[in-house]
Design a protein that fits this description.
Blueprint lengths: L20 H7 L3 H17 L3 H28 L31 H4 L2 E5 L6 H14 L4 E5 H13 L3 H9 L3 E7 L8 H14 L4 E5 L6 H5 L2 H13 L1 E5 L8 H9 L1
Parallel strand pairs: 1-4, 1-5, 2-3, 3-4
Helix pairs in contact: 2-3, 3-5, 6-7, 7-8, 8-10
Bound molecules: adenosine-5'-diphosphate and magnesium ion.
The site of adenosine-5'-diphosphate has 16 residues, from helix 5.
Length: 265
């Protein structure tokens, strides 16, 4: 009967198997399979792959490529200042932090658990690098992330507030699975800093969405930095309920080469 395949499941006529595979693969948006098909056909024939093996390998390549593309797009959307990975971080230089301590943040369950982190310490100790690396790892596990400097975030939310658009502007920062707020307290923040930040932190806390902060100020100084001690406490309370504060110490990695040169001479 036309339209029924050998196992009774197919709808393509067996008399007409000369299909235009190229265009069918294009229609199905399978560019990797389309690209690899000729060489895989040759290899399959030469090495005697089973039909299942042949199809399995092609589909696996398509899925792997699709995942890589998603990771690249998500990393661009995250707006990291530069792409940093945990593998690039030298824990033998930054000895005040053990890699195990970051284990829960590099775990596939990190986003589901809604963990938060505050990295505090002087300049060049790797705070931004580590937060970006955690964000990138989350992206590799299928989530999305967003990096923003505290001063830009607060300015944006404060001016949205003045225009009566605070809720809308805040939503854009509640949506990403992981939010990195870099350099809290580096520059002078607007008078409404605590207000606008509290709204965001509270919304993310309610949705159990991870927040990563870097700062050079101790928790006790956040009240001054954000111009409101009670709200700063409420912010820290929510962040630390499911999170930790890790202090990084040591000398700046940025000027490491100067010291190495001095040691040589
Ligand atoms: P911070 O945010 O604490 O000021 P960064 O994370 O921006 O410091 O680090 C400054 C530079 O030094 C970045 O290029 C970062 O990748 C690098 N860096 C810092 N610490 C380390 C480390 N332990 N291993 C590798 N690179 C590091
Ligand atoms: Mg930094």
């Amino acid at each position: 009967m036309p339209g029924v395949g050998p196992s009774g499941g197919g709808v393509v006529s067996q008399e007409n198997i000369d299909v235009d595979l190229e265009s069918l693969l294009r229609r199905l948006h399978l560019p990797t399979i389309r690209r690899l098909l000729p060489s895989y056909c040759e290899q399959a024939a030469a090495e005697g792959w089973t039909h299942r093996d042949f199809l399995g390998r092609l589909v696996a390549e398509e899925v792997a490529n699709r995942n890589n593309t998603r990771i690249q797009k998500a990393a661009r959307r995250a707006r990291f200042p530069s792409l940093k990975t945990i593998e690039e971080f030298d824990f033998t230089y930054q000895t005040s932090l053990k890699r195990q301590k970051l284990g829960p943040y590099l775990d596939p369950d990190f986003v589901g658990q809604g963990r938060n982190l505050i990295l505090v310490g002087p300049s060049g100790t790797g705070k931004t690098h580590l937060c970006c690396a955690i964000g990138y790892k989350a992206i590799q596990y299928g989530h999305d992330a967003r990096f923003v400097r505290a001063c830009d975030l607060i300015d944006e939310l404060a001016s949205a507030g003045k225009q009566g658009r605070l809720r809308e502007a805040t939503t854009g920062y509640v949506e990403p699975h992981v939010l990195i707020i870099d350099e809290v307290g580096y520059l002078h923040h607007a008078d409404s800093a605590a207000n606008v930040l509290y709204g965001l932190v509270d919304a993310r806390h309610q949705q159990r969405r991870p927040m990563l902060f870097t700062t050079n100020k101790t928790a006790a100084q956040w009240g001054d930095v954000l111009h409101d001690h009670q709200l700063a406490e409420a912010i820290l309370d929510r962040v630390l309920e499911r999170g930790s504060l890790i202090e990084l110490r040591g000398r700046s990695y940025r000027t490491k080469h100067h010291r190495e040169k001095e040691a040589e001479s």
